[in-house]
Amino acid sequence: MALAKLENILIIGAGQAASQAANSLRQLGFQGRIRIFGNEGQPPYQRPPLSKAYMLGQMPAERLFFKAEEQWEKDNIDLKIDEEIISIDAVNKSIKSKTGNQYEYDKLIIATGSKVRHLPAQGAQLSGVHYLKTIKDSDDLGAELDNAKNLVIIGAGYIGLEVAACAQKKGLNVTIIEAAPRILARVASPELSQFYENVHESAGVKILTQSGVAKINGAQKVESVTLGDGTNIDADVVLIGIGIIPNDEIAKSAGIICNNGIDVDENAKTSNPDIYACGDCANRMVDLYGQRMRLESVHNAIEQAKLAAANIMGQNAPKLDVPWFWSDQYDLKLQIAGLAIGATKTIIRGDMAARKFALFHIDDENRILAIDAINSPPEFLVGKNLIAARAKIAPHILQDTNISVKELANHAQN
Amino acid sequence: MAKITFIQHNGKSQDIEATNGGTVMEAATKHNVPGIDADCGGACACATCHVYVDDAWLSKLNPMGSMEESMLDFADNVQPNSRLSCQIVVTEDLDGLVVTVPESQF
């Protein structure tokens, strides 16, 4: 049997997906060699706290790491966290590192993640201008925030908003600059954007939408940011959070099909049968919404890593979950289930003013496509199941809080 | 340090040395305990680190917060001794703690 010949599995990348793939392979009984290749010099760690609890100093660094280094050894997973891989030879089934080492594989998993999108503005290279992706980025930014007065955040996505909440707690003047007409424009409904805009503004954060950055000013260190309309904003620290780009170059160069990330099938397999891809770098079909996409989330990284491991081990694919996301800002826990693709109506359940509510995004047939739950875990957990079941529930039922969350499913239409 | 025993639904058990100040979930994931996926990394956002706590230990744990309570209200196969292991903080007093991983988490 083919499985018996599997000896070497290599994983390029050392993030959430890489860590999960290695652990899942061991849990499924893989006995051969597993090597993880990273370029940050850090054992695999979780990134979400970098813009939340860790940045606020509420979580020590050692809690970021998925496992202690001796546990990786014990699990016989070889961490090469300072060995950047630069090419794949898909014909001879080997990869090559920057330092010139070559490693052969039976199966290869690409979990290279993403890199931050750079702002092509004058002055973006000045000291005091930050991006946020790694532990080091978070440490550097966090240290500067402790001694700064004015923070300008360019980009009102989750990273920008989470850091804004942290900086506000640390007592800085915070200004957020966003090119789109509303914050979270790419990832949230207009209602949710409006809610978070109000939350941040009432906390004292200044938000400027429909504003572009003309340049960042300073001699060596940043001093101010000039907007497209000429307005100047004082800044001793700047954070740029304008999205990420999938790290798919290494796959492309090896002849693997890529379209906005590495194309994978329902088993996280690429166009090459011995190569898998998972996490931010992969582009997958999401059946629930009938389209291919890249999902930038922890859930997606874990799910695809499990798919890859299961397929390599000749096991059935684990059951897929509805895509989900979360964000912590101030005292608000946002949990999002599903994607509002094709939604035509938004139903509010609960009390927005009390900061405890859920938004149900439904289509013309009342089918629930996505739920944004703010401080409302029940709506999130039940909602995930309703979305997976493609349940249709009338708006007047959804918004009626006299009907308990548990009962909602009983009101589903055919 | 506190010794924590994780029992799988098939009866297999695993003893782990957990660090004080960390959580039971972290102790599990750091040692590859199957069934504790902890997809959200301990943010109390996903309910994938659900465990049943041995009755003798329930009163010794830090109390449940409102977020954990409402997550558990809607998680699968909840019992009176259910907790989210990401919310149980390890202390010296928990040396010997026994928890069971629900079958539904596989």
Structure explained in plain terms:
The complex is a heterodimer of chains A (414) and B (106). Chain A has 414 residues and is α/β, with parallel strands linked by helices. Chain A has helices spanning 16-27, 69-74, 135-145, 158-169, 190-202, 249-253, 298-312, 377-388, 395-398; strands spanning 8-12, 33-37, 77-80, 85-89, 94-97, 102-104, 107-110, 114-116, 129-130, 150-154, 173-177, 206-208, 213-218, 222-227, 232-234, 237-240, 244-246, 262-263, 275-277, 282-286, 291-293, 324-329, 332-338, 345-351, 356-362, 368-374. In chain A, a hairpin with a 5-residue loop joins β25 (356-362) and β26. Chain A is globular and about 60 Å long. The mean pLDDT of chain A is 95. Chain B is of the alpha+beta class. Chain B has a 5-stranded mixed sheet with strand order 2-1-5-3-4. Chain B has helices at residues 24-30, 66-74; strands at 2-7, 13-18, 50-53, 82-84, 97-100. The A-B interface holds A 23, 26-27, 46, 48-49, 52, 63, 65-68, 71, 75, 298-299, 302, 324, 326, 328, 333, 335, 375-378, 381-382, 405-406 and B 22, 26, 29-32, 34, 37, 39-47, 67, 70-71, 73-75.
What are the key terms here?
heterodimer, A: 414 residues, FAD/NAD(P)-binding domain, Enolase-like, domain 1, five-stranded parallel sheet, 9 helices, B: 106 residues
